[in-house]
Amino acid sequence: MPMPSLRTSHWLLFASVAVLFFSLSLWMSKQSDRAEPLPWLVDWQESVIVPMAEGDLSLEKLAELAPGELWLQPQAEGPRLVYRTEQEREEGVWRLEGELELSDGERNSLSKALGTGTNEQPLSGEMLEQLGGHRVAVLNMVPMAEVSAARLAASIGPPRLRLRTGEGEAWIYPQQGLSAHLLEGKVQLLHLVPRAAMKH
């Protein structure tokens, strides 16, 4: 059975739909081009992200940029020292948590100090100063307000790799030791580790 021929009105409809989709994609790309960067994150590229990627970010430097508190946290595999702070930014509050790099000897000493307790304990400002030279092993930054993926890209550039996850998407920046976890185009978490740790 021969196929019916397309009328001029059909071609006009197809052309209109094509133009509509093209216009929509162009508008969306312009919207992302116009996204405002996060000024503090742009500044943190040199002061935090690069040293973190190189494995050289100290607690002292992080505390200088983002004052907070040091906590002793019991864990089954051994206690952790975590540095916590909340930072008020133009787009809203960000929660930061950094875990310090500890030797086995330091973990053993902390285990003795913690005893059999299961609750987290805040440490004094003096302890924070004493441990200022310790390196930050992991740094997590969580926005409490909506931050678009476009603003992240405007701040630190497009990701080297994009991966679909069970609950959204992950943007991977291997050179920066950074992964961004996104849900419906919004940033949920920025996870920073030394660059070498990303290779394992």
Overview of the molecule:
- The chain is α+β, with helices and mostly antiparallel strands and 200 residues long.
- It has one domain.
- Helix content is 36%, strand content 29%.
- The protein contains six helices and nine strands.
- Strands 4-1-2-3-5-9-8-7-6 form a nine-stranded antiparallel β-sheet.
- β8 and β9 form a beta hairpin.
- It is elongated.
- The N and C termini lie far apart (61 Å).
- Residues 23-32 have low confidence and may be disordered.
How many discrete domains?
Answer: 1
* Widest sheet, order of strands: 4-1-2-3-5-9-8-7-6
Strand runs, count: 9
The H-and-E topology, N to C, reads as HHHEEEHEHEHEEEE
Distance between the termini: 61 Å
Helix content: 25-40%
Mean pLDDT: 86
Largest sheet: 9 strands, antiparallel
Q: What amount of the residues lies in strands?
A: 25-35%
The total of helices stands at 6
Low-confidence stretches: 23-32
Radius of gyration: 24 Å
- Indicate the overall shape: elongated
* Coarse structural class: alpha+beta
Topology:
Layout (H helix, E strand, L loop, with lengths): L7 H26 L5 H15 L5 H7 L3 E5 L6 E10 L2 E9 L3 H11 L6 E2 L2 H6 L5 E8 L5 H8 L4 E5 L2 E6 L4 E6 L2 E7 L8
Antiparallel strand pairs: 1-2, 1-4, 2-3, 3-5, 5-9, 6-7, 7-8, 8-9
Brief overview:
This protein is of the alpha+beta class and 200 residues long. It contains six helices and nine strands; from the N terminus they run αααβββαβαβαββββ.
